C-alpha cells in the first residue's frame, strides 16, 4: 500500500549566504529535473517567532519507496553530491523530516481507515465547534450582557 509522504528540510541560512543559497537552489532544481525528482515548494516564515532567515523546502512523493529510490539516485549522482557539499557551507543548521500526508483527498486513503472498513465515500472530516460561540445576530448588547453578568455574581 502506498502512503504519500513529504520530505521537509528546514535550514537556517545567514543573510550573508543568500546569493549562494539562490545559486544552489537553482542548480539543485536543474539536477532534480534531470534525475526525475519532484521540485520542492520553498517557504520562508512570514509571521510568528521564526526568523525570515529560515528556508523550508518541501517535496511530496507518492510513497516511501519512491522517496527512497529517488533519494538513492540523488546520492549516487556526482553533481548532486557536489551540490550537497556546497549546501553544507551555506546553512548554519538543518533539520530534515519525513512526514506522511494525512489528507483524505490523496489516493489511496490512509491504511487504518481501510483496515477499519471505512469507505472513502463515507469519510467526512469532522470539525470541532465551540459550544459557547454566538453568531453576531445572537449577541446581546453590551449593557444587557454586563447587567446579566453582574446579577449572577
Structure, briefly:
Helices cover 37% and strands 18% of the residues. The chain has helices at 18-35, 64-76, 78-87, 111-115, 142-152, and strands at residues 5-12, 41-43, 54-61, 93-100.
Q: Which key features would you list for this structure?
A:
153 residues; alpha+beta; 5 helices; flat
Description:
- With 153 residues, the chain is of the alpha+beta class.
- It has helices at 18-35, 64-76, 78-87, 111-115, 142-152, and strands at 5-12, 41-43, 54-61, 93-100.
- Strands 2-3-1-4 form a 4-stranded antiparallel β-sheet.
- The longest helix is centred in the first third of the chain and has 18 residues, at 18-35.
Topology (SSEs and partners):
Elements: E1 5-12, H1 18-35, E2 41-43, E3 54-61, H2 64-76, H3 78-87, E4 93-100, H4 111-115, H5 142-152
Antiparallel strand pairs: 1-3, 1-4, 2-3
